[in-house]
Write a structure and sequence with these properties.
By secondary structure, the chain is mostly helical. The protein has 9 helices and 5 strands, in the order ββαβααββαααααα. Among the domains are: about 5-95, Winged helix-like DNA-binding domain superfamily/Winged helix DNA-binding domain (Arc Repressor Mutant, subunit A, Orthogonal Bundle); about 170-228, no CATH class.
């Protein structure tokens, strides 16, 4: 992958070193194929109090990104940053960008699951999750757009992870899942679906008492943290 947002934002072989050009790259990537207005980019980079030179500085950042793309052999086949009124459009081939690849694998995995092909669903969803290298859009400052996009993408990752776990449960992989689910339940102490999957995996491996303890801990956490 040349363009990555499913983890630290990066562009290979060289990612811009300064924070704001990387944030500009990320903002254009999460809306790849769409024209992003200049005023939206300024809001994202500087918030509600941009400097008087914001438009000029943005043009400098755009020029820097174009230079990076050109150094990497930028073309219609590998990524172009185009000027399109009222802003800019970044055109990136799907094969070079982790986000559309993830979305394609996610859709194919969901379709396979709905068709009852749990083995294929598990494989596709495993492949989708393997594209992730950390929290979405990390390593850059977030404005409103990037923060919303990061939240949405991280939630999609959890959705795919949970569906992959369900597919593996349907395949009888309870023993293999128990350790992974114990770690996930510890990492996400209030995510009820993960605890439910963990209880199923423990119960089906003959660990009913451990499953009840998981239930008790979750109930206690929900009462103490949320009053539920």
């Amino acid at each position: 992958m040349r363009f990555r947002v499913l983890g630290p934002v990066s562009l290979s072989p060289r990612t811009p070193s300064a924070a704001k050009p990387r944030a500009l790259l990320a903002t254009l990537l999460v809306q790849t194929g769409e024209v992003v207005p200049v005023h939206s980019l300024i809001d994202e980079l500087w918030g509600t109090e941009p400097p008087r030179t914001a438009t000029t500085t943005l043009q400098v950042y755009v020029s820097q990104l174009r230079k990076v793309l050109a150094e990497a052999g930028g073309s219609a086949h590998s990524g172009e940053l185009l000027t399109r009124a009222p802003g800019y459009l970044l055109a990136v081939p799907e094969r070079d960008f982790d986000l559309p690849c993830f979305e394609r694998l996610r859709a194919e995995g969901r379709a396979a699951y709905q068709e009852g092909d749990f083995g294929r669903a598990s494989g596709l969803l495993h492949e989708a999750l393997a594209l992730w290298t950390g929290p979405a859009l990390s390593g850059i400052p977030h404005g409103v757009r990037l923060e919303s996009a990061a939240i949405r993408l991280d939630e999609l990752r959890m959705e795919v992870l949970e569906q992959r776990i369900v597919a593996d449960l349907r395949l009888g992989r309870h023993q293999e899942l128990a350790g992974e689910l114990l770690a996930l339940a510890n990492e996400h102490p209030l995510r009820e679906t993960l605890h439910g999957h963990l209880m199923v995996a423990l119960y089906r491996t003959g660990r009913g008492s451990d499953a009840l303890r998981v239930y008790g801990r979750l109930r206690h956490s929900l009462v103490e943290e949320l009053g539920v």
